[in-house]
Every structure is written in structure tokens, then in C-alpha cells.
Amino acid sequence: GDSVITVQLTEEDKVEDDVVFYLVFTGSTVQHCTSTRKINPGSLETISPGHDCCETVKVALCASREGHPVLVVAEESFQFVQDEAYDAAQFLATCAGNQQALNFTRFLDRSRPPAADVDFLDEKVALAFRHLKLPAEWNVLGADQSLTDDIPRETLMHFAVRLGLLRLTWFLLQQPGGRGALSIRNNEGATPVSLALERGYQKLHQLLTEEEAREPDSWSTLSHTVYSGDYSVKHHRKLNVYMLTAEA
Predict the structure, then answer these.
(1) What is the distance between the alpha carbons of residues 188 and 132, in angstroms, rounded to a whole number?
(2) Most C-beta atoms within 10 A of its C-beta, which of 142, 182, 196, 203?
């Protein structure tokens, strides 16, 4: 989800400015309807929805105009796939509180990937986390809430901070247990806050210590989603397009 889709119109489809185009994605269990914005008379832009499974769906380009019936301009198939970032997000989500798995992830720190790779990893994994269907009881600290703060252990927050993953850290802060993870020490005695300071991640340290810290600038253009029962409405701030998602 949140990838830009460009639609090229044929000469026959280029119409007056008062015609509104939108895309309808129909899957096996979920349907998405996205508005579009016109780049020029022959091109439209919108965003891809975050789907609930990997499958090929039907997508219809529709046109509407006040006082006229909705017209289906074109239909095509569209395939949702599960990439490595989604796999990584699923793995990390299931590893919350799993000490063996979280300690295993520290090999990434030893390999010290280049800054450009870290930024790419941060963007993709954080975006995948945003589209995961996390259980209502999911917690950054894992399923065992009986553990006290004075028990040393690794957390997902340690993982994110150790690699300098700004977007993922912000996401985790908004989840249950996110703020609580900041005071937990690992076996080396480090908290996520002290790790950020030790490694010179100034933006991360600021994010973790300021009560009024704002979301990373790089996320200000992404979607904001409002949920209501079986429906959700998403607004993509950069393109200023909207998406309605409902159970089919």
C-alpha cells in the first residue's frame, strides 16, 4: 500500500474537467475505492491500497459526472504480492517479547549496513507495519505483561533504535507498550534512550525524550487512516486523494 499508481487515459477517455475518475479494487473479501487526481489531460494519479492478502483482484476505472450515471471506463486485473519488507514486519511483530528471536536480530547490527540501506529498510518495514493487521491485544513488549521493568530483556524498541530506524521507532511509540519499552534495560544495561544517545542518533533521541515530539517529516506525506467498524477511510496527504475500504 501507499505506492503511487499512474493511469494513462486514451484519447477517447480524455473528457471535461468536471468528470471525476476513481478506481475500484474488488478482492475476495475486501473492496477499495480510491479517488484520483489529474496530472494532465491524459494522466491520473492515486495510491495503491493496503490489501489483506496476496491475490489478483479486479480493478475498474470509473468516471462520474453530476447528473449522469457512473460509467465504467476500463477494467483490468491487479496483483497484490507479499514482499520481503512485509515478511520482515510479520516476523518482527510475532517476535515481540521473544528473547531468542530478538537476540538473533542483532546480527543486523554487527553487519552495519550502509546508511542508504538502513533508510530504505526503515521506510519499507515501517510502511509494512502500518498495513499489518495486528491483534487487538498486540503489545510492543510481547504477550507476557507480568514481567516488571527491572527484568533485563531485549525489546522491539531496542531493535529499532539500535539500527537507527526512525520511522519504525515512531510507529512502535504509538502502539501499546511502546512508551513503556523506553525504560527497559537489556542484558548490557542499555535502554532504547541510552542506545540512541550512545550511537549519536540525535533525531531518534529527540523523538524518544520529547513529550511533544512530532512524527518524522518523511511520514508527513503518507496516509492518515480513520476506522469505523468494517469500514476505513484513508487520506493520502501528499497526493490529496482518499480511499474507502470495506468488506466485500
Answers:
(1) 31
(2) 196
User: CB-based burial of residue 165 (10 Å sphere; 0-12 exposed, 13-18 middle, 19+ buried)?
Assistant: buried
3-state DSSP assignment of residue 25: strand
For the chain, state the CA radius of gyration. 21
Q: Distance between CA 118 and CA 164 in Å, rounded?
A: 8
Q: Whose CA is closest to 14, among 78, 61, 49, 60?
A: 61
Q: What does the buried/exposed string (b/e) look like for 117-130 if buried means 16 or more CB atoms within 10 Å of the residue's CB? A: ebbebbbbbbbbbb
Alpha helix (H) ranges present in the chain? 84-94, 99-104, 107-111, 115-131, 156-162, 166-173, 192-198, 202-209
**CA dist 52 → 49, 56, 77 (Å):** 10, 12, 17
**CA angle in degrees (0–180, nearest 5) for 111-156-49:** 95
Cβ 35 vs Cβ 22: under 8 Å: yes
Q: What is the pTM of this model?
A: 0.72
Closest by CA position to 187, among listed 96, 98, 92, 99: 99
Amino acid at 155: T
**Does the pLDDT of residue 220 top 60, yes or no?**
no
61-77 residue pLDDT tens: 999 988 888 889 999 99
